[in-house]
Amino acid sequence: MTYSRYYVCDLQVHSPADRMQGYGDIGGREPNLNFARRFIQAHVEAGVQVIAVTDHNTVDWYPVLNEAGQEFGVAVFPGVEISVNGCHLLVIWERSPLGFELGQQFLTKLWKPGEDRFFPNGDA
């Protein structure tokens, strides 16, 4: 007999790159593995087993958070939060290199080449 499995998940996680995060300047905006490890470890300590990285209009932090997730046994999914006409839409792809690639391709098709993904004040 098989039983259902339940996981503690956070499917809307923002990295330090996202202006909507509440971490302040800790870790810097550019992806770095040291901060990613501390970030994932904090999730482990809170009992979280699955996260989706859903920064506004970017998937840049996924690779380092995924690497840290593998070290700590946390499943990390690539995702994005897109701002559309004042609404926010979450998109989450499969947890694989292809999922990350699809996320990158998706974002390149939403904006014209050279068009900024953010308003001049930095808002999504």
Helix content: 25-40%
Question: Low-confidence segments, ≥5 residues, pLDDT <50?
Answer: none
Largest sheet: 4 strands, mixed
Estimate the global geometry from the Cα principal axes: globular
Structural category is alpha/beta
Count of discrete alpha- or pi-helical segments spanning 4 or more residues: 3
Oligomeric form of this entry? single chain
Overall pLDDT score: 88
Strand content: 15-25%
Strand order of the largest sheet: 1-2-3-4
Alpha-carbon Rg, integer:
15 Å
Query: What sequence of helices (H) and strands (E) makes up the elements?
Result: EHEHEEH
Number of strands: 4
Report, as a whole number of angstroms, the end-to-end distance.
Answer: 48 Å
Question: Could you explain how this protein is built, in words?
Answer:
- The chain has 124 residues and is of the alpha/beta class.
- Helices cover 31% and strands 20% of the residues.
- It has three helices and four strands.
- A four-stranded mixed sheet has the order 1-2-3-4.
- A hairpin with a 2-residue loop joins strand 3 (75-84) and strand 4 (87-92).
- The radius of gyration is 15 Å and the shape is globular.
- The relative contact order is 0.18.
Topology:
Blueprint: E1 9-13, H1 33-45, E2 50-53, H2 62-72, E3 75-84, E4 87-92, H3 97-110
Parallel strand pairs: 1-2, 2-3
Antiparallel strand pairs: 3-4
List keywords for this structure.
124 residues; alpha/beta; four-stranded mixed beta sheet
Offer a quick outline of the entry.
By secondary structure, the chain is α/β, with parallel strands linked by helices. It is built from three helices and four strands, in the order βαβαββα.
